[in-house]
Amino acid sequence: MQKRVLIVGGGRVGRHVAAQLSTDQHLVTVIERDEGRCDQLSPAVSRVIEGDGADPEVFATADPAELDVVAALTNDTEVNLAVCEMAHDANPGIRTVLRIARDGEQDHGYRRFVDHVVYPAAAGAEVAAGKIADR
């Protein structure tokens, strides 16, 4: 099933997630502040919005009421929390994915508007350990 996904943050993590989801035929929009990154993302995703995803006016241009999932994937946990909260306020049925920047930030009472938490360093360690154990 094709999903309408918004990714806030087009850095390393956001760019890889956007590419994978686009390959899987999902409709991916990315909000990114850096103009150069926006240019890199443009061919790979449905839509790129240049701006600060934590700015309510910029966020609203992504039409959150029509989205299935919002993934806040910047390297700033506070920005990501703000994005997930705005998404939940705009569309209470939306799924939200929160990237945390540091270990230990997994649960600070925001579960009412965050569905999934990702910590890239832990995910990478899990994959690496699996590859090592398989050999």
Q: What's the arrangement of secondary structure elements?
A:
Elements: E1 4-8, H1 12-23, E2 27-32, H2 35-41, E3 47-50, H3 56-60, E4 69-72, H4 77-90, E5 95-99, E6 116-118, H5 120-134
- Distance from first to last alpha carbon: 35 Å
Mean of residue pLDDT?
90
Q: Helical proportion?
A: 25-40%
Query: Got a strand count?
Result: 6
Structural class: alpha/beta
Side by side, the strands of the main sheet go 3-2-1-4-5-6
Number of helices: 5
| % residues in beta strands | 15-25%
Domain count: the total is 1
> CATH topology, what is it called?
Rossmann fold
Largest sheet: 6 strands, parallel
Please report the first level of CATH classification, the CATH class. Alpha Beta
CATH superfamily: NAD(P)-binding Rossmann-like Domain
Could you state the order of secondary-structure elements as H and E? EHEHEHEHEEH
**Cα shape:** globular
CATH architecture: 3-Layer(aba) Sandwich
The value of Rg in angstroms is: 15 Å
Stretches with pLDDT under 50, minimum 5 residues: none
Summarize the structure.
This protein is of the alpha/beta class and 135 residues long. The chain has helices at 12-23, 35-41, 56-60, 77-90, 120-134, and strands spanning 4-8, 27-32, 47-50, 69-72, 95-99, 116-118. It is globular, with a radius of gyration of 15 Å.
Q: How would you describe what is shown here?
A:
The chain has 135 residues and is of the alpha/beta class. The protein has one domain: Rossmann fold, CATH 3.40.50. 39% of the residues lie in helices and 20% in strands. It is built from 5 helices and 6 strands, in the order βαβαβαβαββα. The protein has helices at residues 12-23, 35-41, 56-60, 77-90, 120-134; strands at residues 4-8, 27-32, 47-50, 69-72, 95-99, 116-118. A 6-stranded parallel β-sheet has the order 3-2-1-4-5-6, with helices on both faces. The radius of gyration is 15 Å and the shape is globular. The relative contact order is 0.15.
